[in-house]
């Protein structure tokens, strides 16, 4: 970036203490300044309302990874999803120990669908954290990791939907497979959009939100189908529709923050480090994933309790 170091920069306070860790010492010695939006290259200028707190372009994986120990405008984006991925990586152990012995009817299928859920969430959050950590590396790496970040969103949608389809159509396997296939094809279509380089450009922010919003809205198709076939009361419990509503609320709020760039659009520079729209969206996605997990546990209990009596339903909806 021409003339970058000759421009005025915001100094980061250096500690006078002796730093024993070589990693931390190198971080302090190599990352001396935070930059303003105008000082960043065009390919990094994503949000004109975030005016300060930018890391310099590192050109180094080591330096980018070391920036996790600094305070800048990506810190909260990194930590929110990094810690969330760790949480969802550890949760399966106590959950498995708690629920697998709860019902004699619990099977490998339950373990698989819970595994799909946790895998989708962990991959999505981990990829997101990695993207924000490496976003100051270079134009190429930022573009590549951004593309992976969008793919991670698809992993999250797919991984969180499959378990609900399993329990929502617990007694009708052919309907399970119908919706598995339909939703997987929708995810594949979104992946094709995601792999288009134009898709990640800042000017397509609203378009991206609409595409992922449409994928999220496709939740309604199996819900409406299930209610039509089995009735509202049954599907309310089979698919934990109350908790699914909480999930949609969190994701909807996150989409509003992200698309409208609230609150930094109203108060430029005030939320550069903490409280920006992208950070709020991150927290909303974590809360949404937790709501889905609670709902999934509720669906599991219902499927293996009073909702697991399937004789009449299975016989009534066989092919042929």
TrEMBL record:
Topology in membrane: Multi-pass membrane protein
Superkingdom assignment: Eukaryota
Binding site for Zn(2+): 132, 278, 282
Keyword Cytoplasm appears in the UniProt entry: no
Transmembrane annotation, as ranges: 78-99, 111-134, 146-166, 178-199, 211-230, 242-260, 280-300
Alphabetical GO biological process terms: intracellular zinc ion homeostasis
InterPro entries associated with the record: AdipoR/HlyIII-related (IPR004254)
Gene Ontology cellular component list: membrane
GO molecular function: metal ion binding; signaling receptor activity
Keyword entries, A-Z: Membrane, Metal-binding, Transmembrane, Transmembrane helix, Zinc
Primary location: membrane
Compartments in which it is found: Membrane
Similarity field: Belongs to the ADIPOR family.
UniProt protein name: HlyIII-domain-containing protein
């Amino acid at each position: 970036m021409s003339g970058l170091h000759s421009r005025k920069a915001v100094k980061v306070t250096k500690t006078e203490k002796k730093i024993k860790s070589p990693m931390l010492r190198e971080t302090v010695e190599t990352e001396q300044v935070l930059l303003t939006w105008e000082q960043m290259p065009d390919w990094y200028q994503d949000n004109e309302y975030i005016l300060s707190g930018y890391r310099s372009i590192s050109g180094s994986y080591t330096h980018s990874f070391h920036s996790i120990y600094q305070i800048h405008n990506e810190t909260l984006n990194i930590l929110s999803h990094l810690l969330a991925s760790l949480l969802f990586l550890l949760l399966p152990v106590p959950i498995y120990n708690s629920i697998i012995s709860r019902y004699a009817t619990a099977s490998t299928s339950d373990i698989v669908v819970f595994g799909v859920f946790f895998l989708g969430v962990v991959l999505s959050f981990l990829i997101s954290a990695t993207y924000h950590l490496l976003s100051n590396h270079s134009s190429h790496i930022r573009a590549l990791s951004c593309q992976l970040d969008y793919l991670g969103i698809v992993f999250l949608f797919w991984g969180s939907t499959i378990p609900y389809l399993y329990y929502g159509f617990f007694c009708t396997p052919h309907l399970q497979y119908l919706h598995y296939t339909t939703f997987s094809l929708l995810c594949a279509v979104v992946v094709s959009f995601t792999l288009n380089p134009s898709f990640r450009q800042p000017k397509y922010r609203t378009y991206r939100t609409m595409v992922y919003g449409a994928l999220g809205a496709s939740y309604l198709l199996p819900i409406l189908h299930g209610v039509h076939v089995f009735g509202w009361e049954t599907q309310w419990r089979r698919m934990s529709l109350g908790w699914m509503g909480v999930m949609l609320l969190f994701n909807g709020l996150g989409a509003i923050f992200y698309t409208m760039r609230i609150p930094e659009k109203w108060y430029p520079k005030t939320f550069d480090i903490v409280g920006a729209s992208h950070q709020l969206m991150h927290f909303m996605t974590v809360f949404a994933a937790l709501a889905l997990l609670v709902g999934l546990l509720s669906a599991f209990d219902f499927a293996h309790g009073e909702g697991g009596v399937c004789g009449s339903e299975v016989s009534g909806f066989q092919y042929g």
